[in-house]
Amino acid sequence: MTYATWEIWALIAGMAVGTFLIRFSFLGLIGGRELPPWVQRHLRYTPVAVLPALVAPLVAWPEATGGQPDLARILAALVTAASGYITRSLLAAIACGLGTLYFALYLLG
Amino acid sequence: MNFTTPLAAFLSGMRSSAPFLIVVVPFGFLFGVIATEAGLGIREIMGFTVLVIAGAAQITAVQMMQDNAPALIVLASALAVNLRMAMYSASLVPYLGAAPMWQRMAMAYLMFDQNYALSMVKFEECPDIPLSQRVAYYMGAVSLVAPCWITFTYLGAVVGGQIPPEIALDFAVPITFIAVVAPALRTLPHVVAAFVASVLGLVLAGLPYNTGMLVAAAVALVCAAELERRLTAGKTRRAVG
């Protein structure tokens, strides 16, 4: 790494301010004003839209296998989704998912 | 289930968030280790972890710094990783927007995927929780995550060491994120949102600066909202007719 100390601190400051402004943005500026129903209807689906979009490539092309699809990881993801959907429990889904992952990694090497 | 007091809401958020520590603890540690290996000093590492306090963006930045990428490119890439949080921020407005300014600033600073997702699921399930208890739940759900992130970054930087590959740490994030989304798939539009987002997330994965993920999520929530509108319009028509 060849950055000057001031450069590193400028980067930290830039990331800190930028990240805060992204997080604060709508919550800070709109505040308590009522949003139109059609906007609220869209926002309701944010978590179930963002997290799967984020996760799908990590499942299909894991960094740990050099981007090669890995049966153990795909199985673990499917079991996590199915058990979470059925049990409606975060903890049960994580337990089933991790259990499947380690069992499949052990079996498949 | 509704809470009786803000304290009960805080403790419930805290309890719900505990399973996420299996991700936050090792990744905090990992950040401390790779940041040290990249050549950052302890003050800079703690500056990152306390001031930026955003795991994925911090790891992205340090990996790029190790390759000596220009500082502005590092900054842009790291902020692109965090851009999803603008969507989080918007979607929290109907539930938390009426909170006092200082509370909104604190909640913005402490916005993690984990407490955000837990809170949204909770608020949707129980729309009658009063504002003070919503804020308390949100803060409770980050009350373990944030201190653990900071503490384990420090330990990773000071103690160092390796995380054995058998743990398959890379997959802790996907599993916990799937585990928080799956129970939240309560209606057909929710399922459609998750499905469209996953498919488009794969199709658009090659786009630069994380834009694929953002586009995939945006299209998915438009699809879900449109489906919801049609379903409720159909129901109203039937009720009237």
From TrEMBL, chain A:
TM region positions: 6-30, 42-61, 85-108
Keywords carried by this UniProt record: Membrane, Transmembrane, Transmembrane helix
One Pfam family per UniProt: AzlD
Name of the molecule in the record: Branched-subunit amino acid transport protein
Protein source organism: Aliiruegeria haliotis
From TrEMBL, chain B:
Source superkingdom: Bacteria
One GO CC annotation: plasma membrane
Topology with respect to the bilayer: Multi-pass membrane protein
InterPro entries to which the protein is assigned, alphabetical: Brnchd-chn_aa_trnsp_permease (IPR011606)
Taxonomic placement: Bacteria, Pseudomonadati, Pseudomonadota, Alphaproteobacteria, Rhodobacterales
Keywords from the UniProt entry: Cell membrane, Membrane, Transmembrane, Transmembrane helix, Transport
Keyword Transmembrane helix listed: yes
Subcellular location: Cell membrane
Family according to the record: Belongs to the AzlC family.
Protein name: Putative branched-subunit amino acid permease
UniProt GO BP: L-valine transmembrane transport
TM region positions: 20-38, 45-65, 71-93, 135-155, 167-185, 191-224
Main location: membrane
Pfam families xref list: AzlC (PF03591)
